[in-house]
Amino acid sequence: MTDKSQSTNPEPDLSFDRVDGHVKVTGAATYSAEYPFDHLAHAVLITSTIAKGKITSIETKLAGQAPGVLAVVSHLNNPGIPGYGIAKQPAERAPMGTAFRIFYDGLIYFDGQPVAMVVAETFEQAVHAASLVHIDYEVEVHQTNFEANLPKATIAPSVQKNKNSPFQDYDRGNAEAMTNADVKINATYIIPTQHHQPLEPHAIIAVWEADDRLTVYDKNQGVKSAQGNLAQIFKLPRENVKVISKFIGGAFGSGIRVWPHTIATVLAAKIVKRPVKLVLGRELMFTSVGYRPYTVQKIEIGATKEGKLSAITHEGTGQTSAYEEHLERTILATRAMYACPNVSTRYRLLNLDVNTPTWMRGPGDATGMFALESALDEVAFALQLDPLELRLRNHADSDPERNLQWSAKSLKECYEMGAQKFGWKNRSLQPRSMKLGGMLVGYGMASSLYGFHRHPSKAKAIILANGSVVVQSATMDIGPGTGTAMTRIAAKILGVQAKKIRFDLGDSSLPDAPGQNGSSTIPSVGSAVHVACESLKNKIIALAASMPDGDFSKPDPSEISIKNGVLYASSNAEKGLSYVDILKFHNLPQLEVTEESKSGPERDQFSMYSFGCHFVEVHVSPVTSEVRVKRVVTCADVGKIINYKTARSQSIGGIVGGIGMALMEASVMDHRRGRYLTRDFASYHIPVHADIPQIDVLYIDKPDVHVNPIGSKGLGEIAIVGVAAAVANAVFHATGKRVRELPITVSKLTDDEI
Amino acid sequence: MRPYQYYRPRNLKEAIDIVSSEESARFIAGGTNLVDLMKRGIAIPEKLVDINHLPLKKIEQKAGILRIGALALNSEVAENKIVKAKYPLLVQALNAGASGQIRNMATVGGNLLQRTRCTYFYDTAFACNKRKNDTGCSALGGINNMHAIFGLNEKQNEDSCIAVNPSDLNVALAALDAVILVMGMKGERRIAFKDFHRLPGERPDLDTNLERGELILGVELSMENLSKHSHYLKVRDRAAYAFAIVSAAVALDIDQGTIKAARLALGGVAHKPWRLYEGEKMLVGQPVSDSVFKQVAEISMLDARSFEHNAFKMKLVPNVIVEALKIAAGRP
Ligand SMILES: Cc1cc2nc3c(=O)[nH]c(=O)nc-3n(C[C@H](O)[C@H](O)[C@H](O)COP(=O)(O)OP(=O)(O)OC[C@H]3O[C@@H](n4cnc5c(N)ncnc54)[C@H](O)[C@@H]3O)c2cc1C
Ligand code: SF4
Questions:
Q1: What is the CATH number of domain A1-11+404-453+606-754?
Q2: Catalytic amino acids of A?
Q3: Scanning every residue of chain B, which has its alpha carbon at the shortest distance from the alpha carbon of A672?
């Protein structure tokens, strides 16, 4: 494969390979659905075909008699899920804030809701039997149409109750400023529902080791939180629940919660008294694991002739289910992004008869920054000003929302590096003025930001008698290469080759770590690994000091270097002392430490964000209106880069997701039924190789000394934030047509003029 | 998926006998469409008659006629030397379809018979006349951005089904005036391409005029003098691996700047590959010129009509016609 991505900034280090790359590409890695068990039974879900109402009957006789069938589970025969409590008779709709309870009472909250599960000896038998189950419903009128119901949107109840919620109405400065602005734009931006569709669908194997001991092999993003959740739902002591999730074939928020299908599988395993496996089919992925919610945003911006933002109002309304809230950062970035004295934001939720959304890469920010950064482009056009220049003129030198200094911010350098690499200066100001080989050419850019998240994390570091190292933490790897980054941190501190280090993750019995979300893994777990390895190093140096060899008797770590597991004192570079010898001398089978790392008062002293920007070139056919992205340059300031090679992959992945968001992804629903139509990859488009051009990934790569001991901020989410706007802005520059509702498709761009 | 029997017939005759006599028996070739339909509960055959080993794979030229066996793979046809040299239109159309992996499984016969991609057709929770006649068409009042704009003028067609034939190959074969060779209980027959697929009418459940049990043996092509100036243009939101929003296959015979003969077919616009006969007639005897092409596009649209979400095709299609003609004529 040709390498499409390269960086110019200081000699990108591509030397450090993904530690599990080999097992992944050779198929040796074991994913959740692949653990072998004798007597494994297979489950298949049956889902509702109405959006609201209740089940009046479930006919399971034929299914029950079908070959291989072990059980047909539904609310009619559910022996009870302890954490749910007992269903009321007659059934009552759950109060707001109740997570959907599977097989509980026969009420239907959304189309595609799981209503029964068939368990059989083989997968094929389960599928067949499921086709024989007949369900009757009493249909109630449903509401799924966002536009039609928009007037019903409200401030979320939890926000109403919480004065300190960031989602409270926010006003800074003076509302008059808008009226007095020289130039104003006012626009509405829409993003459709977009679904999580990782290559590996969600899968689980549930095994009851004893009546009160459960092990689940589950695709999720947090083994510890899954463990806690399952313990609570099945009323088990936490330590009796073990959750394993070692390899994950992609997830960007879809695995944060324990979803009802996981609970159903655990229940089924209890009923049939055998390990049970469930793999969601692609179709079920559209109603089982959440999605980026349909969101409508209105933005008004006023600016001075000189290109200073004088006022911004940003109103966002997102959809959620009829039973739970789902709050996203949609409008929050607008308060911190630019130096604008007068800013108002409003955030509303609209309850519809759909399943609850969830976090999806850059949750809220990817949505909000699509609107804000598109709007900024509109302001630039209104002012006849270069869009990058507009951003420079409104750069926020400190956090205008919290009135705090940034922990670090190199956004101006990002703009400069990105623009230089991209050749932004070659952009002509007028839309539709650049052409190449019959194509309309457009250059677009957008800024990005993402808040810094760090959670308390523990890591255990061990030196074994043979001198190799094991580092452990109950963190996850949904794809970014967690183990690789952690190995690199450990290798550097402990002076051991990567191949002699094993990093264990994805097992709830390992030391506490947060789930992998909010770009918090490197900042949190990376810090814990750093601290644990430093501490282990000090410990082994102390052991060396107590040995008769005089070179190490003065235990000052800064005077000691370690190479390939051998300590060298600066006083004697010739003679080393190996980990193996130290452990042997002390008669120790191994040496280990467990350390915790968490944030301190710096959180109140600084405002902490990652920043970045994207530059995009598109070509649009004036004949067919097809849009193709030709080039992307992205530059991010995320503090210190731990491993460029895997970081770059993260950035590329975010850009690819952003291109999909801009040009393809949309879950289309038929509101007559409240049912999604696009439930396969033939109709729900995500980019393929042919859609992805050269992507240049640049980093500032300067440690942010205020955030944590390793100076690294998160990268996963910021990679996608702003990309859709950069693409949309490029399409505007190419065509003169502003598409404010994603995705930007041929059908939206086709008109007489183009 | 329901349990089914798998059968490997000894020869063509046995294959045809079984599928002709057993209501729920189906041929299976590459399975890239049929298996998906079975998984969704749309096709529920009780017996699959595997034809893959039958001698229908050859691509051969005899007396100026190219015969492509029904079991020739889409990728084999696109790589074939004769096809590449003489029918570049076919190669372009094939390579514009599906993905490399699917083209390595998909056969010519299966491609001719692939079913519509109307999303309602694929979801048994929605009514669909094509799946079950007389149950209603959900696309009519539903989401119909991918649906037909031609072949609807008789009420009968509109009320029954507004789906489009999704094949790229079919559009090229329509333009190339292919002949389909089939064999049934009554022996062999030849079907002109224009008579192979149908408009929905009273039987939207039927895509073609094949009779039950008839096996496609192959496709025949002639008309080589139209191969010099040809082009297949496919419009799609995704650069690969997407069905056409609209496509056009054009083949022109140009002699010293004058068009001697023309074939013009569209995909993604009708229940069957859509030939533009009026436009073709108009082109004959005309010089290669943009204004002629524009007139062709204009008259071609006269009998088009759109629905709630596919009105954009009314603007897109004429652009596509003109562009495909321009490229085919060598005047991009
Ligand atoms: C994800 C995806 C994307 C695709 N994209 C495109 C695209 O962009 N463009 C495009 O044109 N196509 C596309 N296709 C469709 C693909 O071209 C067809 O699925 C394929 O050509 C069918 O051929 P097959 O041999 O696999 O047919 P099968 O699935 O085996 O059979 C299809 C039907 O034909 C019948 N049949 C097969 N052979 C014969 C015969 N010799 N005689 C009588 N009946 C026969 C079968 O009984 C069955 O009813 C796509 C398919 C998929 C799955
Ligand atoms: S357009 Fe045809 S295939 Fe689609 S729903 Fe209507 S009848 Fe069915």
A1: 3.30.365.10
A2: 717
A3: B142
